[in-house]
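protien #1 (seq + structre)
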Amino acid sequence: MRAGVTGIVSESPEQTRAFGRILGALLSAPLLIWLAGDLGAGKTCLTQGLALGLDIPADEPVTSPSYTLMNQYRGRMNLFHFDLYRLNRIDDLDDLDFASYLDTDGVTVVEWADRFGELEGGGLRIRLTTLDENRRRIELHAGDKVPPDLVARLLDAWRRENPS
């Protein structure tokens, strides 16, 4: 991992979902999460787990909003799930009223956050890197609006659930 970046290796899609679930369960305040990674790296998979951790009903399908651009889910905290893959210009975000979701009372997840570098900042940045068919490196970088102990608590909870 790069200096200043913390993370884990997920061995399967189920573990990637579990990592998201643990993160969601730890959240007690609004958070902005920027997700980056290649196509198929597990961004939506992680978001599905996050939804479970936020007590969004398991029978509510959490899917990539590639065509709708934003999906909203109701749980213990609202989840606003954006996908920027199909946007061509940063100005396209104005039509979605994107800025209003950056400081909301819920959790805002932005897939393909690295498409528009000027957007990144403030929240929790998560990069998923494909290692092989099932394994993913999940790197975390906490911005200035992330609770100071969130990443440490997340990694501790992950290690308790997945001892090596």
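ok now protien #2
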Amino acid sequence: MATFKVKTTKHTSFVNITNQVREIVRNSRVNSGLCIVYVPHTTACVLINEGADPDVIRDIAYSLEKLIPWKDNYAHSEGNSAAHIRSAIIGNSRIIPIENGDLLLGTWESIFLVDFDGPRERKVIVKIIEGK
């Protein structure tokens, strides 16, 4: 298992962590298996989507704001209910196959840590499971 930290800079931050995760996979020397990427935070999540065109991420952020607005009639007293809801919908982990010592991501796919309640320092946990 490996961990690393990500400092986010905005209230809603999408941080491409593909290179950090890929490096952990390569250093593991596992040829075939699974890579679990997990963030132990209730207002952050892990997302896999297009990393080549930043407009895709902007469109996702825009759509989430329309679907789950920051200001609404929420009961949670800390004032960050929207961050909790967005994170719960997207999820705080992803499983990515490993083959030939590398992540089996699609051509345009990247792994993002998404912080909905930043700026903060977030922890990412990566667990590699070797296939048999």
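The chain has three helices and eight strands.
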